[in-house]
Amino acid sequence: MYLVAIAWMYVVLMMSIVEALSPQGTVLGALFTFALYGLLPLGVVMYILGTPMRRRARTATPSATAPDAGGHAAGESVSPERKEP
Predict the structure, then answer these.
(1) Is 7 a domain residue?
(2) Where in the chain does DSSP place strands (E)?
(3) What is the pLDDT of residues 19-60, one digit of tens each?
(4) Is residue 25 part of a domain?
(5) Under 8 Å CB-to-CB from 20, ≥6 apart: which residues?
(6) If residue 45 lies in a helix (H) or strand (E), which one and from where to where?
(7) Is 8 a member of any domain?
């Protein structure tokens, strides 16, 4: 997955360099090319493809507020001190 992402960023970088050095191109156009053809789509694709990995990581680590074995929320482990009348 990362190899494809690196290759795509290389292609987009080369497109941006060609646009910046072209007689009709501008540096601003090269920046927009890099951002709109490279960073934005690649960020969305990497986020979507990383969803299963994030889901597995979230379910693998127990949370501090996880319910106990009975399905009830965890309460305080020490009961409050009762005052005598």
Answers:
(1) yes
(2) none
(3) 999 999 999 999 999 999 999 999 999 999 998 888 888 888
(4) yes
(5) 26, 27, 29, 30
(6) helix 40-49
(7) yes
Tokens at residue 58, please?
Answer: 């979230």
In a domain, residue 71? The reply is: no
Flag whether the pTM goes above 0.85: no
Tokens (6 digits) for 66: 């996880």
> 49 is written with which tokens?
């493809």
Find the domain containing 13 and state its range. 2-59
Express the helix, strand and coil content of the chain in percent, nearest 5 each. Answer: 60, 0, 40
pLDDT at 68: 55
Q: How many domains does one find in the chain?
A: 1
Compute the average pLDDT of residues 49-78: 71
State how far the Cα of 85 lies from the Cα of 83, in Å rounded to an integer. Answer: 6
